[in-house]
Amino acid sequence: MAVFGKNQDLIERSRRTADAATMRRRQEVQPKAKAVRGIRPSWVDTYKPSEGKYDLVRLIRNPTTFVSPLEPSDDAGAEVYEETVDWYKYIKHYHATLKRSVNCSGGPQWKNKNASTPCHACAMRFGSWDDVQRKYTSPVGVALEYVLTVLVMELFHKVPQIDAAGNIRGNNKGEPYTDWVQCQGEGCEYCAEGLEMKEGHIQTWPMPKTFFAQLMDLGDKKSNFCLSCAKKTIKWFGNEYECSNCDNPQPASVFDLNFQVCKKKINDKQTLLDFEEVEIAPVPEQYISLLDSLPNMAQKFGPTALDQQSKQFQYTPKPSTQARFINK
Ligand SMILES: [Zn+2]
Ligand SMILES: [Zn+2]
Ligand SMILES: [Zn+2]
Fold it and tell me: Does residue 314 sit within a domain?
C-alpha cells in the first residue's frame, strides 16, 4: 500500500538526520508544547485527526459497561441506563478562560440536583446563573463526549516526558518516561531529533457527537456486506438481518473498516470528518499484536477528583455549599 511506502521513506530520512539532530538537541532547553506534567492527564495518548492530512485508521471494539450520562439536552428528570457498548460516553467540562478541561464527577445524573454527586465544575457553572441576563456567566462549559478506541496505522515517535521546569521526567535509574506521539510528517521536530519510531499505535479518540454520528453512518453504509460470505447480499427486515447468499448473515460495521480520515472546516462554525479509501478489510497482520491490550476507558475518562478539579479550574469551594448547585 502506498501509505507504507511513504512511511518507509520517512524512517530512512529520519535515520539520516539523527546525528545532526542530536547536536542540535543539546542546545535546546525549551520544553515541548505537548509536555506531560504531574499525573498523566486524559489527553495523553489520545488521537486527534489533523486538518489537511489523512491518517489511515481502524476503529477497535473495546466493550465497556457503564451508566450512560444524561445528555446536556436531556431534562434533569430523564432516566439513565446501563449499557455495554464498544465505546465510552462522558461529560466534559471545558474552562474557556483557562483553556483546560476536567471530567464531570456529578455522576450519570449530573443534571439532577437530588441525584448528582459533587462536582466543582458543575457548581461553578450552575452557580453562575444570572437572572437578569438569563444565562450562565461562568466560563465553564458542559459537553457530551464519545470516546472510541482507534488503531492509528501511522508513524509514532517515542517522546520523553518533560516536567514543568523543562527537565525530562524519569525513574530513579535515570530512564526517561516516554509517550508515543504521532510523527508530524514533513518538518517533524521529532524526526529532526532522530527519536525512536514505530508504525501503528492504539489510542483513545474522544470526539463530539457529530463526529461519532458520522462514523456510525460510515459503518451503516457498509452493512449490506456480509462478512461470512463476502458478498453484498444482506438486507435488514425490521428485526433481523438476512443474507441471500448464506445462512450466517454478518453485516459489516464501522469496526470492520480500514479508512483514511482527516478533519475539514465546512464553515466558520462547523468542522466535520472527511473519509477516503474506506474498505472492508481485516486488521493488517503487522498490527494484530497491538490489540492484546486496549485502553481502560472508564479509568481514563472517569470523573476527575475534586481536589484536581479545584487545582485545574482555580476554584475554592465554599464550605457549606460545596459542589451543590441549584438546577435551572
Ligand atoms: Zn460536572
Ligand atoms: Zn517525525
Ligand atoms: Zn452471507
Answer: no
